[in-house]
Amino acid sequence: MSHIFVTGSSDGIGLETLRQLLAAGHDVVGHARSTARAAELRAILPGVHDVLVGDLASLTQTRKLAASAAATGPFDAVIHNAGIGGGSDERTVTEDGIERIFGVNVVAPYLLTALMPRPSRLVYLTSGLESQGHVALDDLQRTARAWDGMAAYSDSKLCDVVLAFAVARRWPETLATTVDPGWIKTKLGGPDAWDDVEDGAATQVWLATSDSARARVTGHYVKRFEIQVANLEASDLAVQDGLLARLAEMTGVELPR
Fold first, then answer.
1. pLDDT tens per residue across span 182-217
2. Which of the residues are catalytic?
3. What is the CA radius of gyration of the chain?
4. Positions of E strands within the chain
């Protein structure tokens, strides 16, 4: 039995991830952005060990979430599932002045990774749209470029791959991978999606818990249990180090070596 933390687990792929982990007999801790959503999650899955609360659009709340997770851990695995889409026609910023998509999808998992005790395994969710992304280190929040919500989302999902690869390189004792769950029938995936939510959760559950040699990999991009070729920018060490440096500047927290 493993002790596992899953962010963004009050609905969608995250909720299904908790279901599958519980069904396999693991001890799981969920996460919701509000106390109301946490209560709903506890009602849906009463077997969950705990549900931690924190809005990942807030640096203050993300820091508090990291502290709560540290007190509830240590964890064998952390699955960074939480994320928001790129459907917005307007660029919006958080209370910290950070562009919202980049803040939730990239800054929050970085900050949680940097502040929480290192687990044995880390899994970061990405998207197939990472292939269309670009890491503009001088304009990560799209202040200089014309706003394009889907492009911002694609960029953020590429940054998640870069983050996973950078963590795998910096922390060789931790298995760090990134997963494309597919185009899943959830609120984020939308009505035209064709992949079932069960399939969307299965690969990250496998990577977080399996003792198979195929699952015990690090620094890889995985879809449907198979290693895929990621956007080439993700393997660029200068891009990895540059993103970590920018995130450290934005949060005031460096990734421990």
1. 766 666 656 765 578 799 999 999 999 999 999 999
2. 153, 157
3. 17
4. 3-6, 27-32, 50-53, 77-80, 121-125, 175-179, 220-223, 226-228
